[in-house]
């Protein structure tokens, strides 16, 4: 039974993501990918115009997966700090469950690939940071924040925390799991934000 075009595209992306899970992080070639799929390189190019387009497919999957849930969180949860907690937990959990995608998120898998791919990841992370900044603004309406509280700096701090955990996960050969110390670290992050509140 023939595989439908959409199913074959998904199969190619899944295989690419699996190949990215190798801790050594060797450069992935279309020849190696075709070998894994037991097809010719020409067969790959019937579904994707280039390897860069395959990586774009992975980035689109990441965007849809993350922002589908982030939009749900911000739409259903009224408390700003709870939004932040849920968004950060989502970002850490996604990486822990998707090793290959983590290497895409930190740019490790994009070295020597088309530079527009890293620009897309940068834009994705900027959107995450913007969502965190908005949640902080909501929290500010529920807490007595100092007049000089810098929501941009706080949102960037939270973004850097997540990216740092992703980096540690990938660089450790996926042994230092992002969620390992989350229960202890979230209160620390929470109080770092809350320290910008008035008498809190």
Strand-helix topology:
Blueprint lengths: L4 H15 L10 H8 L3 H5 L5 H26 L3 H18 L1 H7 L9 H28 L8 H21 L10 H13 L6
Helix pairs in contact: 1-4, 4-5, 4-7, 5-6, 5-7, 5-8, 6-8, 7-8
Short description:
Keywords: Coiled coil, DNA-binding. The chain is mainly α and 200 residues long. It has helices spanning 5-19, 30-37, 41-45, 51-76, 80-97, 99-105, 115-142, 151-171, 182-194.
Could you name the key traits of this structure?
200 residues; mainly alpha
Overview of the molecule:
This protein has helices at 5-19, 30-37, 41-45, 51-76, 80-97, 99-105, 115-142, 151-171, 182-194. The chain has 200 residues and is mainly α. It has a single domain, classed as Tetracycline Repressor, domain 2. InterPro entries: Homeodomain-like_sf (IPR009057), HTH-type_Tx_Regulator (IPR050624), HTH_TetR (IPR001647), SlmA-like_C (IPR054580), Tet_transcr_reg_TetR-rel_C_sf (IPR036271). Residues 81-190 form the Nucleoid occlusion factor SlmA-like C-terminal domain.
């Amino acid at each position: 039974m023939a595989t439908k075009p959409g199913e074959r595209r998904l199969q190619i992306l899944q295989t690419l993501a699996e190949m990215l899970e190798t801790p050594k992080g060797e450069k992935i070639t279309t020849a190696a990918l075709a070998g894994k799929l037991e097809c010719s390189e020409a067969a790959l190019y019937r579904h994707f115009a280039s390897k860069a387009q395959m990586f774009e497919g992975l980035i689109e999957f990441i965007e849809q997966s993350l922002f589908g849930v982030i939009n749900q969180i911000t739409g259903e949860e009224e408390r700003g700090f709870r939004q932040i907690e849920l968004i950060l937990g989502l970002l850490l959990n996604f990486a822990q469950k998707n090793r290959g995608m983590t290497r895409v998120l930190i740019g490790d898998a994009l070295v020597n690939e088309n530079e527009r791919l890293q620009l897309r990841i940068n834009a994705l992370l900027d959107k995450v940071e913007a969502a965190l900044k908005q949640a902080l603004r909501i929290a500010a309406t529920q807490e007595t924040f100092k007049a000089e509280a810098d929501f941009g700096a706080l949102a960037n701090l939270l973004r850097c925390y997540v990216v740092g955990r992703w980096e540690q996960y990938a660089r450790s050969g996926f042994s230092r799991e992002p969620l390992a110390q989350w229960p202890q670290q979230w209160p620390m992050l929470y109080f770092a934000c809350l320290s910008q509140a008035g008498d809190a």
